[in-house]
Amino acid sequence: MALQYAFRLGALAFAVTLIRAAFEKTSFTGGLQDSFCVGLIFLGIGFAVGEISRHIVEELAEREFSLTSLPAETGVMDAKSKAETKGS
Description:
The protein is mainly α.
């Protein structure tokens, strides 16, 4: 996930910088060098953000999974299941 986000963000930054250089009518090599540098910078930023988001999603999923499986593993019944057993 982090690499996909990094490549997309880096490619987007590269393309935008290259288009901006074309509108400013800078030299092709200068615009290409600037675009390459900005693309690499945003590739690193995208990787860091993607890695952080992956950790957050994994932590939340693990926490949610442990909360849903907790009553079944410990034998603790919730109020709804207690009411169902009393009603029978």
